[in-house]
Amino acid sequence: MKKIFLLVVVISCFSCQNGEKKAKNEGEACATDSTKSKKFEMYEMSEMAALMEQMYVDNQRLKERIKNGDSIGAFPSHFLKIHKAVMTDDTENDAFFKEQAALFIKAQEQIYKDPANAKEHFNNGIDACISCHQKKCGGPIPKIKKLYID
Question: Of 2, 32, 88, 145, which alpha carbon lies 20 to 30 A from 94's?
């Protein structure tokens, strides 16, 4: 009886170990198959896209300062890179874009030159963003509209 019990225990141990190895190997095979069939490609923002994302964040902060009546601070000089930043599609850097970029910079600079009317100048800057994006790249318009100060 003891011999049969010992035999059952030994067989059970070996079969459990084989099952674990098999499951582990099957999992590795699945992982290997999925990595072979899907190649991960990282999206890399253009210089202009990264600049616009940064300008958005800066304007969110500025909006809060204006709404709270806090000090406006200094004009962020990196905004001026809008004239030279490399775009995803170089053909988009045309006369229309250059005109809109100049209007945006002018409105942004006015916020800092005339803080008494910061809200008006800020919203003019947002208008310039939307005006350009209506012609160039409409995707971010809903996000940009959230910047308006009521």
Answer: 145
